[in-house]
Amino acid sequence: MNEFKDLISQVKKNCDISDAKYWGTFSICGLLLRLRELYRSENNIKHYHKISTRDIGEWINYKEKLWKELEGEEFKDIQINGNRYSPFEINNINQILKNNKLLYGAGLGVHSKPIFFLAELISNKTIKDIKIYIAGKEYARDLSDNPAMVQDRTIIGRTELAKMLIWQRFEEFRCSKSKLALTYAFTQYGISSEEEPSEKLDRLITDIAHSEIESYIYHEIGEIFEGEKIGDSWKKLLQNISNTKSEIFARAIKDILSDTSDKGMLKHIIKKQKYGSLAFYLVFLSGFRKTLFNEIFEAFNKFISQNDWDIIDKARVKAYKKAYAYAEKLIDLNNNTHKKEELVEEINKIIKKDFNL
Predict the structure, then answer these.
(1) Crossing angle of helices 245-260 and 309-336, rounded to 10°
(2) What confidence score (pLDDT) does residue 178 get?
(3) Do 117 and 187 contact (CB within 8 A), yes or no?
(4) Which of 84, 281, 59, 79 is nearest to 165 (CA)?
(5) H/E element holding 149?
(6) Would you place residue 128 in the very low, low, confident or very high pLDDT band (cuts 50, 70, 90)?
(7) Residue 306 contacts by C-beta under 8 Å, 6 or more apart in sequence?
(8) Where are the domains of the chain?
(9) Chain segment 196-238, per-residue pLDDT in tens
(10) What is the C-alpha to C-alpha distance for residues 14 and 70, in angstroms, rounded to an integer?
(11) Cα(285)–Cα(199) distance, rounded to whole angstroms?
(12) Confidence label for 1 from pLDDT (cuts 50, 70 and 90)
């Protein structure tokens, strides 16, 4: 028990250091939402229970003071059984933890924010040479809300974060005139907008999260497959446009490539005819991803009336070709532009010209 608490403390320390260094990369609304969910996680508060305004206010003040203390610190090695590991050595660490049904995760998110967590290990399997782990209850995590992540050829699906995101959409579902995809998504799982937050609903949303995590896993499989196709040139591009609007645009292109890949998320949804997953895909499509794949909404409307999965597949193929063309264009710009400022300017011109953004 003491060793388990010590491990949680070590992982949490790196989570706090990451948040201290990168909290400013989030919008104010995004930060507040993440803080609320992190507060729930750290204090084991269910989504159907209300949060005390006073308590969370005191907790946020504590976090702000802690971040000021930690923002200059480097990430700490993880020590287990007298051995020391880099915090990003997930395979070596998990080799030790698997007998205790624990799962450790580490990687890089948007703006290269380091992500760390420690969770219950629910299951693991291998698809070809890709290791896939599914995480349950999380004992330590940072502000990031990625429901799945990939490092090298290891994919981790995080059911608690998938559940958190679905609860957020349920709150939207209850409080406003819902959009078509949002209504369709929840009704496919037997949930109406009149449903009250409760332990029963929490169990239903837990079941949805376990179902939806499979789709997120296939996004990451598409990420691996498409990453191998475009190669190191893409990594160099991201390095050269880091912390800019252009980076967010480039990452959205890669996400759409991964989603629409023959190995990716949408192909899996179409193959398995997962109606709820298709609707949730539209629900969570936002930002540049939504702009790049806007035609999926018209395709979805036709799909509902005709129940023809070929409509969705044609939209998928079209979006893939468009995203791949943008990826090639950005790689070409990177290869032929010598200054970051010029590269960012050229990509911003594309964003403005093609999307008026």
Answers:
(1) 140
(2) 64
(3) no
(4) 281
(5) strand 148-151
(6) confident
(7) none
(8) 2-162, 209-355
(9) 999 999 999 999 999 999 999 999 999 999 999 998 999 999 9
(10) 10
(11) 28
(12) low
**CB neighbour list of residue 67: distance below 8 Å, 6 or more residues apart:** 16, 19, 20, 23
Q: How many CB atoms lie within 10 A of CB 350?
A: 15
User: Residues 254, 259, 260, 264: what is their CA dihedral angle, to the nearest 10 degrees?
Assistant: 110
Q: How far apart are the C-alpha atoms of 185 and 285, rounded to whole Å?
A: 13
Q: What is the pLDDT of residues 86-97, one digit of tens each?
A: 999 999 999 999
| CA–CA gap between residue 23 and residue 7 (Å, rounded) | 24
Token readout for 32 is 């507040």
Q: In the numeric block, which tokens belong to residue 248?
A: 């967010």
Both tokens of 86, joined, read: 């880099």
- Choose among 71, 151, 159: nearest CA to 108: 151
pTM above 0.90, yes or no: yes
